[in-house]
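A note from the maintainers: we've had questions about how concatenated examples are separated. There is no special marker in the raw files; a new sequence line simply starts the next protein. For clarity in this README we add a label.
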Amino acid sequence: MGKRVQGTLKKLATQLISDMTKEIVAKGRVASGNLKSSFKIDPSDNKIGVFNTAEYDTVVDKGRRPGKFAPIAPLVQWASIKGIVPKNNRSLRQFAFAVSDKLMKKGYPGIDYVAKSFMNKQDIITKELGDAYLLDAEEQLEKQNPNLK
């Protein structure tokens, strides 16, 4: 991969992460801040990977189907961070059980922040990456055959 393509991929990855974190914040899905701060860029020779190390990122993004109880401990932690005070003298654990029960019955739709970010950057990805690829290809051709100019 050429230098321009590599640099463009890094720039686009940074922009995508910025867009994804903005979408998470805009949808009010920030409690501890772990999700929005856990994005990483993994450059390699042939690609640039963007990934998230938060264990619940897929649930926030794609949601969860009804049918299974959600784990209680993360819900207790989430409610505590959010400052939720349960009604009727209930504990945070009881509140978490109620939330888990509702998730089991109804599921959670997710906010689709990854797809939205990619769609928002689609034109930029196509244009900038295409331009960088063409310039790198021209440079390679000129190196292989200097008489092409």
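[label: protein 2]
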Amino acid sequence: GSGKTTQFRRLSDAAKARGIPLCEVREPGGTTVGEKIRETLLARVQPGMDMSLRCEMLLYMASRAELVERRIRPAIRGGELVLADRYVASTLAYQGAAGGLSAADISAVARVATQNLQPDLYVIFDLDETAAAARLSPLLDRMEAKGAAFHRKVRHGYLDLAKGDPSRYAIVDASKDPDTVWRSLCATMTERTAHLAPKR
């Protein structure tokens, strides 16, 4: 409900318009195996198909491992900008802060799954859980349907990650209209990625 998908699309379109080689990925999914895992993770719960939290975390990591191996590392080697719709921070927020798994356990699995590949920048589109819920489709997937208390913990999990590593995380106020959020995102990207620009 934060408008992340809308802003992701605008950022992608802006990069393409400037001729920047680009690789876009989403989580879970993005590969043949990953999309099968996505179907399992986000399907509405069926009788007998509820999964343990640890299983859930490991499935996200399995999808991520395939994505890093098949898509992200080859794109980086080819000089492409990689835009990822979610990454390890999501697991730390959802299965960690909200679910109750330890950050240490999640980080240990993440190091194996991603070969310790970390993004230059995480952008968090911050919106309180009440406003976010009002924007969501009534046809909620399994993660969206977990309720306000769960999503409040998710939000605070993301904010705590940003507080703990401000050099790698940027927070954008997502409570405004899409154009205002876009201007804020552009300003944030300009400020936080200037040092990543190739030397001419």
